[in-house]
Amino acid sequence: MPNPSKRKHNANEQAKYQRIASAHVPKPPLARNLVTAFAVGGIICAVGQGVLNYFVSSGMTFDEAIAPTLCVMIALSALLTATSIYHHIGEFAGAGAAIPITGFANTIVAAAMDFKREGYILGMGAKMFIIAGPVIVYGVVSGVIVSAIRWLSR
Amino acid sequence: MNYLIAFLVGGAICALAQLLIDVLKLQPAQVMVLFVAAGAVLSGIGAYERLIEFAQAGALIPVSGFGHSIARGALMEAERIGFLGLFTGAFEFTGGGIAVAVLLAAAIAVIASPKA
């Protein structure tokens, strides 16, 4: 028959162990992830604002400046991807690097580099859009439908 | 001043995306698709246009701005030339970026190989 006082002792030990162990379990990195995503995503958007301001100050209207701004940001991202810098930014910032248009461009360039080994046509050519493709597909599907509804109901 | 607003709004959009990734355990690619569609829908009700007026690049640079730009281009061309404009306008703002991405991706892939 087990000794009740010993069992109680064990339970105490267990509770103590739980307390000590839980203090050492790594905290879920949610807060850190949110802060880095916010900071890096914000910085990328501020850089984009600089490019946009440059085009507007050089005489373009705001609407005219949108496409060139996207082009410049995408080109910057392509260069950072080629030098594998964007990969490190992505590991650090998660969505902060993925959600800006630079992350979209990064997936295209990285896929092109990765799938080159499967050949230039069925590898690089076919799989360049392996992640960016769905973004374009659902962007066009939702964008054209939404605009059609708005245009028809004007 | 518009740098600060772009930083805050762009950062907030990215933090929201990170929250979806961590809490709902979504893949980044799924969140990108979600945001591009959300941008298009918000564009349809006119909300994203107001966000861009306020935050400029902070709303344009995230992929939700990409969805908005597709919707906006389609609507703009539809108002200009009619029904077919819905299709010819879809890449009005975004086509240049896609062209640059494809061209540079091809050039870089030929020159460089990924690091192991």
Key descriptive features of the protein:
heterodimer; A: 154 residues; mainly alpha
User: Termini distance of chain B?
Assistant: 42 Å
Largest sheet data of chain B: none
Oligomer kind = heterodimer
Count all strands of chain A and give the number.
0
Give the % helix of chain A: over 70%
Strand content of chain B: under 5%
Global mean pLDDT of chain A: 90
Order of helical and strand elements of chain A: HHHHHHHH
Structure summary, number of beta strands of chain B: 0
Strand content of chain A: under 5%
What ranges of chain B have pLDDT less than 50 throughout 5 or more consecutive residues? none
What does it look like?
The complex is a heterodimer of chains A (154) and B (116). Chain A is an all-alpha fold and 154 residues long. Chain A has a domain at 29-129. Chain A has eight helices and no strands. Chain A is elongated, with a radius of gyration of 25 Å. With 116 residues, chain B is mostly helical. Chain B is globular. Chain B has one domain (2-111). In chain B, α1 crosses α2. The N and C termini of chain B lie far apart (42 Å). The interface between A and B is large, with 78 and 79 residues.
Write the layout of secondary structure elements.
The complex is a heterodimer of chains A (154) and B (116).
Chain A: H1 4-24, H2 30-57, H3 62-82, H4 85-93, H5 95-98, H6 101-115, H7 120-127, H8 132-152
Helix pairs in contact in A: 2-3, 3-6, 6-7
Chain B: H1 2-23, H2 28-44, H3 47-55, H4 57-60, H5 63-81, H6 85-88, H7 95-111
Helix pairs in contact in B: 1-2, 2-5
In short:
Chain A has 154 residues and is mostly helical. Chain A has helices at 4-24, 30-57, 62-82, 85-93, 95-98, 101-115, 120-127, 132-152. Helix content of chain B is 79%, strand content 0%.
